[in-house]
Amino acid sequence: MAVTATTPDDLGYTPSTKGVWSWITTVDHKRIGILYAASALIFFFVGGLEALFIRMQLAQPNGTILSADAYNQLFTMHGLTMVFAVVMPIAAAFQNYFVPLQIGARDVAFPRLNAFAYWLFLLSIILMSSSFFLGGAPDGAWVGYAPLSTQLPELMRMDFYAVGAQLLGLASIASSANFIATIFTMRAPGMTLMRMPVFTWMTVVTSFLLILSLPVFGIALWQMFFDRNFDTLFYQAALDQGGAPLLYQHLFWIFGHPEVYVLILPAMGIVSEILPVFSRKPLFGYAFVVFSGIAIGFLGFGVWAHHMFTAGLGPVAEAGFGLATMLIAIPTGVKIFNWIGTIWGGKISFQTPMLFSLAFIAMFVIGGLSGVTHAIVPADTQQHDSYYVVAHFHYVLFGGSVFGFVAGAYYWFPKWTGKLLSETLGKWHFWLMLLGFNLTFAPMHILGLDGMPRRTYRYADGLGWNLWNLAATIGAFIIGISFLFFVWNLIKSYRGGRPAGDDPWDGRTLEWATSSPPKVHNFDQVPLVRHLDDFWHQKYGVDEEGRAVRLPEVTGASPDVLEEPGDDGGSPGGGVVDGVPSDDGGGTHGIHTPSPSFYPIVAAMGIVTMGFGLVYSSSGWLGWGAFGVGAVIALFAFFGWAAEPVTREAH
Amino acid sequence: MALEQQAVLTDEGGHDLDRTRKTAMWVFLGSESFFFAAMISTFLLYRNTTNDGPGAEIFNIPFTSATTFVLLMSSLTMVLADNAVERKDNRQARVWLIGTALLGVTFLAGQIFEFTEFVDHGLTVSVSPFGSSFYMLTGFHGLHVAGGVLLLSGLVAFSFRRPLHREGGLNTGIIALYWHFVDIVWIVIFTVVYLLQVS
Predict the structure, then answer these.
(1) pTM of the full predicted structure?
(2) How far apart are the C-alpha atoms of A448 and A466, rounded to whole Å?
């Protein structure tokens, strides 16, 4: 190779990191992670606002704030926003930023594909949300059940849903294939699969779930879209038409159930990272945690019909799916006991990331237990489409996923920015959120068992639902206030927080071995991995009584220390590759950071333009014209992309 | 210890890029399998729901067998193209790539002809769920063939700029995987949709 740079600062070509254009063209996995996080946070406030409107409407009987039509749009978009524009992208944010760091890679396998997936996600969710200003948002619930969703083809609302969700799925498939290729082929030397951090493992599982479930959803969406626009008969059940709407439910939930594990497994991974660090113990039963995550992934594909117990599938199918659903409680329970085993007897430090992780366990157990009750078919028949279900999935998705992701934000913010988040504000955030969350969703169990149906925009007085609805509304506003503390904390700490150093929590995994924030190329030298929790083993040895002792020579391991090859052979401090073929003299000879590219965003724009065209395809030349223009743009971008060299040469 | 566990590091940033690309393509094809599986399931659900309109009896098995043979032969030419690239024989590679693309186009032409015949027999997307699912399944497969033809054309265009090689992002190894997959899907479709329905 022609490049002979010898120090990291002397890299032949370092992409600029200033200005909007550098963000638009970035292919750095860390900056793309930040883009995902920022988008998710913004949409969290959009989705939260939608939820507050819903709660204001339901605060009192016979609410008058929203019309039935507006209510339908708001609860549909609340679900879609929270699932597709908040929880999935915030998981993608952590995965993008930390998976390459945790496996000791310089970037993901396909940096431009990664950027493309982000832009396609962002523009698709903008497409879907733009429907608010273009004749009304989707109003058929996030499930979009046919034949309700195939009614009124003259309104574009469910076309926005069908096309928007389709494109979001495409973005997720692109990013998942990227992660699988990265994790399976780009791990640092010695990083065997069973030495990977649990968060990286959960990324593998969720990527496979997305890869295999999203195409099925895609088919359901295409069929619904064709029914609406091209007079096909997939879900048209009138006597002379012969379609079977039940097919939509099957296809949707073959996607929809793995999807709920897509939403929770990354949070489980984050918590499995945080609990050992703040308990000063290794994760209890690492292999069990990993394999139960994989088991959840497998079983997740075999339980979809427990969402359809009132559809009349017959006793054999219902018994089978009920039993399969109960089976899932086993690997989930294994994980919970492993987490408890991890903190058991540990030296626990109750800092904010730990508080959120502990709350995650408690809230997820409640949500998990109410979930097991759905496996019992007769009970589920009573609970179906009631607020009990709403309570259940908010306990796993908010009490589980959101608590886990917020824990991750407090845990990893120092690595992102080099600054610590304020503990005081963090504790305000935590206690308000825990209080608000339980005040909002615990009463919904009672409301549901009392018979209050979900997805109805008002209820009559005198049904005994007034008190708990008012409580839920107050709780929702407390949640909203708690997140104002979070944002204040983010801004304040980013501007003037305490410097974090490279390893503020005494971490165990490789991301803490590099600087905060990490350099463009992540590691000056590719780390050599000898253990599970390798970074911890670089810092600690074991004395003759079996106690962990900090090794003095690598205290506060910094990249400078990592740059020095282990001088005395088998020293545990020598966590570097000494003997990389291209490495002469401890330098960074031949590190190529991929060059910025504008083709990914152009390709995403082309595809989303095609999407707009499809939404308006029933209005004739306008729609098909937009579709054609989008296709030309996308083709241009993809061929430009293919012809563009990955790395511009250094001179 | 453990030094012997080091992977072979290439100067491409420490990993074997071809292996990475192939992994991603296999994963993508796994996704595609579920895409087609969902459509094939839909077709099987609706295979008898013809609403007294035309059904499988209008299929022309000899004709579709011929186009199937054409598509299968395109897999052979694809292998020859990939092999020529490996031998660094750019001219041969280009010939076989163009051949593969032309066979793909021939298959598509056959499909379009077949569709017009079926429409003449009264089978449209809106006459019955059978029609809807038949056209959706075979149509999406046709789109995949068309996408493959585009990729092959791109390769042919690049081959005039500089000799094809296996290191590029768009290379014959990756596209061959995709092309063979689309062929295999057609074998399933031809069996399930045509042969089993008529017999």
Answers:
(1) 0.92
(2) 13
User: pLDDT tens-digit profile of B91-149?
Assistant: 999 999 999 999 999 999 999 999 999 999 999 999 999 999 999 999 999 999 999 99
The CATH code of the domain at A17-503 is 1.20.210.10
Establish how many alpha carbons lie within 13 A of residue A336's alpha carbon, considering only the half-sphere containing its beta carbon: 18
User: What is the residue extent of each domain of chain B?
Assistant: 15-47+58-198
Determine the 3-state secondary structure of A511 from DSSP: helix
Half-sphere exposure (CA, 13 Å, Cβ side) for A242? 20
Interatomic CA distance for residues A173 and A207, integer angstroms: 8
Element (H, E) at A540: strand A540-542
Distance CA A345, CA A568 (A): 36
- Per CATH, the number for B15-47+58-198 is 1.20.120.80
Domain ranges of chain A: 17-503, 517-563, 597-651
Token pair for residue B16?
A: 């074997």
Question: CA dihedral in degrees (A21, A23, A28, A33; nearest 10)?
Answer: -170
Contacts (Cβ under 8 Å, ≥6 apart) of B112 = none
Does the beta-carbon distance from B35 to A216 stay under 8 Å? Answer: yes
Rounded to two decimals, the ipTM of the complex is 0.92
Nearest-Cα distance to chain A for B110, in Å, is 23
- Give the per-residue SS3 of A306-317: HHCCCCCCCHHH
Give the C-alpha distances (Å, rounded to integers) separating A651 from A8, A13, A17, A153, A604.
Answer: 16, 8, 19, 57, 30
Instruction: Please say whether the beta carbons of A364 and A336 come within 8 A.
Output: yes
Check CB contact of A216 with chain B, cutoff 8 Å: yes
User: Measured between beta carbons, which residues in chain A are less than 8 angstroms from residue B30?
Assistant: 211-212
